[in-house]
Amino acid sequence: MTREEALKNLSSDSAHDRLKAARFLARNSDLSDLQILRDALRNETVSYVHTGLEFAIKRVSSSASPVAEDALEEIEIPPDVRAQIRNEVTKEITGQILHEISSPVGLIASAAAREVPEYLDSRTKKHMDTIKRIFEVIEQLKSAAAVPRPSEFDLAELLAEIVSEVAGNGPVKVSLLGSKPMLITSDPALLRLAISNGIRNALEAVTGAPGDEPHPIVVNWGETDIDYWVGVLDRGPGVIGPAEAAFGIGKTTKKGHSGFGLAIARQAIETLGGACTLQPATEGGARFEIRWER
Asked: Are residue 158 and residue 136 in the same domain, yes or no?
């Protein structure tokens, strides 16, 4: 596909062709195409194509430099390179945080266990547990920005493992609906991060919803001619506020949670060149979906 063909396909009747064009332009476009991408976004009605266009606009916009317009061509950095730089910065910063602070925190926890009376039932232990959870999600965020290591595996088997680990024998039933087996080549570790956080978010939503028994969760998956996808459908309270806000670091409406989960999921799937969406489900609740290139 050429750049001209991609720009033309933004107005195609086929959603797949429009998504293909958006992904091509995310890698091969420049600032002169921004208005065309924004016009296409304004007219787009298919959610996953809408997300693809948003990702393309984000990448193209991030290639802009704060210097004068006439100097852009001399120092232009491809969007893919900028995305790689961002991932490296994320890994570097989270790595430094873990290296510099984890040891002192461990020493504090050890001292508190010895010196605080009835430590196991104390507020001190509760606060230390909160700090430990934050360190765990920072480690996940660091892993989510890692360079992909693709290998061939069965996506259906991976999903079954994740559901078993995350939901276990808990009160919420999780149904798996999709092709079995489904052999793909991708990075299973990054997908595990994205999917497990999506399922956890759904479990928290239905567990906190009113009613005697929580509604079951449905995890489905499939493929198109250009991408793979996994969806997590819950019957919880639905999307509260702007869906995009749920992906911000520290954003959560659930008491006792750090709000890192969907941010980690997005970082992991964007590292694979894909995208996450969270939107209201047709019959109530919410649908979390990830799509990434074949």
From this structure: no
* Least confident segment among 31-35, 206-210, 244-248, 280-284: 244-248
Domain limits for position 44: 3-75
- Same domain for 115 and 68, yes or no, is no
What is the count of structural domains for the chain?
A: 3
Model confidence over 38-63: pLDDT tens digits?
Answer: 999 998 888 778 888 888 888 888 76
Q: Last residue of a domain, which of 75, 110, 134?
A: 75
**How far is 234 from 282, CA to CA, in rounded Å?**
11
Residues 125 and 71 in one domain: no
The domain boundary, picked from 144, 172, 190, lies at 144
Tell me, what CATH number does 265's domain have? 3.30.565.10
This prediction has a pTM of 0.62
